[in-house]
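User: Hi! I'm working on a homework problem where we have to compare a predicted structure to a textbook description. Could you give me the structure for the chain below?
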Amino acid sequence: MRRARAWLAVLAELGAAGGDDPLFRALTRGGNLVKYPADRKRGTRMRPGSLNERFQELAERAGVPYIDGQKVTAHSWRAGPNTDRVVTGGDGSSQ
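Assistant: Happy to help. Predicted structure tokens:
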């Protein structure tokens, strides 16, 4: 929950705190929200695969493109901590 709240705070700082705004947004290389024309038909959501590409790029830059011999993916970011918690018997109260 702490990470989710932190991300929501970042979105608010970037000006995307509306209740209808998507949780995952396209960002510029400078870390700002991508600006779309008001009449854009496709909306402001990231295209499928963009989140995964972003995670892989950031993992590469951080020097950890592989964890336990497997390529970092958006799915591993979501499922990995939960799997680790279950395996170690944690209850998630410190999250």
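For your comparison, note the following. Residues 1-45 form one domain. The longest strand covers residues 66-67. Good luck with the assignment!
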